[in-house]
Amino acid sequence: MLLLACVAGVLGLLLTARALVALAPVAAVVAGLLNPALRAAMPGWLRSGSVRRAALLYLLIPLTWWYTEDWATWRHEVYRQLPLIGVPLAFSLAVPLTRRQRLWVGAGFIGGVAAAGLATMARYLLDPAAAQELIRIGQNVPSVTGIFHIHFGIMLTMAAFFAVQLSQEEDISRASRWLLWVAAAVAVLSLHVLAYRTGLLAFYLTLAASLLVLLFHRPRLALGLTALAVLLMVGAYYSLPTVQARVATTVYDVQQFYYSHDINQFSLARRLAALQNAKVLINQHPWLGVAPADVRLAMDEQFSWQTYGLEQQNRVMVHNQYVHYLVGAGIVGLLIWLWVLITPLVQPGLRRNPYVRQLLFIFGAATLADSLLEMQIGFNLFVFLYGFLVVAAERRLHPNDVTR
Questions:
Q1: Can you tell me the distance from the alpha carbon of 195 to that of 247, in angstroms, rounded to the nearest whole number?
Q2: How large is the C-alpha radius of gyration of the chain?
Q3: Closest Cα partner for 342 from 56, 106, 59, 50?
Q4: How far is the C-alpha of 356 from the C-alpha of 389, rounded, in Å?
Q5: Counting Cβ atoms within 10 Å, is residue 218 exposed (0-12), middle (13-18) or buried (19+)?
Q6: Backbone angles phi and psi of 170, in degrees to 5
Q7: Following DSSP, what letter does each residue of 134-168 receive, concatenated?
Q8: Which of 73, 287, 357, 386 stands the most exposed, by the fewest C-beta atoms within 10 Å?
């Protein structure tokens, strides 16, 4: 049952199928409750640090009932974020996936993302001029399966890193190892050809963090890979017109804000305006924020005072998960989010798990450029992978006492 839930979750993310995405956590919880050894598994669930961290992140919503004002959004968020409870519960209580099942789920995710990247690149090659024009006006080539470009770029980054790591597993056949390397190459190439800005940010920051970790263990290899990474970055800029266009439009976009021009049609400039208004709200409500459910309401009200020349439909939300938590739940909320991201990286057993490291590096980098948990696909992507990688890894490390 847990395997079926994982397959449904992966397919739902790849195909943007809301029904599959909604049913997957339910099936996972059922799998947990149907475990014949449920009574024996319960203490591990109650003691699991990763489960507690996800639960506390969820509790930021219901525990703010006493000062929230947007009750409709509050009720919706209490329901929408329930997977923060259910998915970790499933991965800590259900009969665990076998090693081979975990590998197949991971390979399915990697293969699906790489296939979507290849098909989207083919769409680009059918009319590269039109695609480059989209990038010049700050837009993106849409993925063939309809995944939002920000999340698709992040998924391509995940596929690249996970494929390389999976290819190093001992019981992977030579043919599978080559297929994984091809999938990694396709993901990296797609990310650069399509020039997804958030994905590229996550890719290079994660690469830098991974190389820094490697530097302490194998310094020569780390320096060699760093040189290759620099060559990749420079080569992509000088050989791919999409990357050149993305860099040029990004610089021009930011300049519009600082020169106080009309920014209604500029994505990054509008985000900078939102960050300026968010700073005002953070200064007014530093500790507990305006309430997580009230962020949009508070931002709209602040925009009515300081419009930055933006029309109503162009007033965007904060595209930064750290700032979003500061606005919604103050310093307390930000510390809880950092607790979720950083704690596994300081626990020796989890820190040694490369999949856990890469997941948290990627999300830590990507959430600098977007409030990923505020959109359903970003939320589902985080919760599923957090359960599949972090909670499950902690359970395997300490089946009897997961708090050690």
A1: 9
A2: 21
A3: 50
A4: 6
A5: exposed
A6: -65, -40
A7: HHHTT--PPPTT---HHHHHHHHHHHHHHHHHHTT
A8: 287
CA separation for the pair 225, 326 (Å, rounded):
36
- 3-state DSSP call for residue 151? helix
Digit-coded pLDDT (tens) for 328-352? 999 999 999 999 999 999 999 999 9
Write down the pLDDT at residue 65.
96
d(CA 264, CA 323): 22
Q: Write down the pLDDT at residue 137.
A: 86
CA distance linking residue 72 with residue 70, whole number of Å: 6
Could you tell me if 286 and 277 are in contact, meaning their C-beta atoms sit under 8 angstroms apart?
no
Average pLDDT on 258-270 reads 95
Q: What is the mean pLDDT of residues 129-154?
A: 92
Give residue-wise pLDDT tens across range 25-53.
999 999 999 999 999 999 999 999 999 99
The tokens describing 260, both together, are: 């106080």
395 pLDDT more than 80: yes
Give the dihedral of Cα atoms 309, 311, 316, 317; nearest 10 deg.
80
Contacts of 401 (CB under 8 A, 6+ apart): 44, 47
Token representation of residue 82: 């329930």
Banded model confidence at residue 403, pLDDT cuts 50, 70, 90:
very low
Start-end of H helices in 285-352: 295-305, 321-346, 348-351
The pLDDT value given to residue 333: 97
Q: Please choose, from the candidates 377, 402, 395, the residue with its C-alpha nearest in 3D space to the C-alpha of residue 150.
A: 377
Contact criterion met (CB below 8 Å) for 50 and 108: no
Question: What pLDDT score was predicted for residue 404?
Answer: 36
CA gap 113, 147 in Å, rounded: 10
- The mean per-residue pLDDT over the stretch 356-378 comes to 96
Residue 352's closest CA among 196, 216, 222? 216
Q: What's the pLDDT score for residue 399?
A: 62
> Which residue, 63, 84, 67, 57, is CA-closest to 294?
67
Q: Domain spans of the chain?
A: 98-236
